[in-house]
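FIELD: query
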Amino acid sequence: MAREYPETWEVLRSHHDRILRTAIESNNGYVFQTIGDAFCATFQTAREAVHAAVRSQLDLNHEDWGDVPIKVRMGLHTGKAEIQASGEYHGYLTMSQVQRLMSAGHGGQVLVSHATQEFIRTEMPEGVTLRDMGERRLKDMVHPEHIYQLVIANLPSDFPPIKTLDVTRHNLPAQMTSFIGREKELAEINQALNEHRLVTLTGSGGAGKTRLSLQVGTECLDQFLDGVWLAELAPVTDPALIPQTLFAIFNLRESSHRSAQEILIEHLRAKNILLVLDNC
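FIELD: result
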């Protein structure tokens, strides 16, 4: 919007800021940081946070934006954080969790973590309900998060699928441990992927090539519009079976009129994907 409407954007954003700040502060909230057009706020109770989110969405929806309606995505999470002398908060796990939660949503959508849902489910504002979105994997989070959506009467409640790793096009297995270190290797591989169509990781057995490639794939999900796909070739002893392995990944069928290679090329030709061949 800032690019498309440079003459009016700052005025629109000032209305946006006023609406959010009023809703937050009228519900005993404290805005401890703003980053661009993003507001980071804390509340004494989860209930007050919900009321602030509901009022924000109602006021944003009722504002006369002209031809440029502003839609705001929001995330609500309850966790441990400590206020500092500067007025900001420390509590990396809580802060990163709510940021990932918000990022999974779409404009006008309010997503709620399981921890917050536990506090608010018996005292929802009038005209507001919770929609169960199921357990989802948020980026860089070790364990799945049970996510809910606030459904606010007279406001849109149907949105595209939330942007979690489950609905991003990929077949990467869930990792049960956090990935620590190897920043140099990650940076080198990402740089190589930007410059080359084919990148090979080599090293002795047990060096961690597979785990490293899976981490690279997870971090690259946003860069490949058609996803990141893992082909595990360790069980494949006959090279002729490699196309069948890829057929299973992409849900393709064999044809009597075309070779397996032709089918794969036709399917992948126009796609922007990262294909990880493990044990190639």
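FIELD: remark
The two ends are 45 Å apart (CA to CA).
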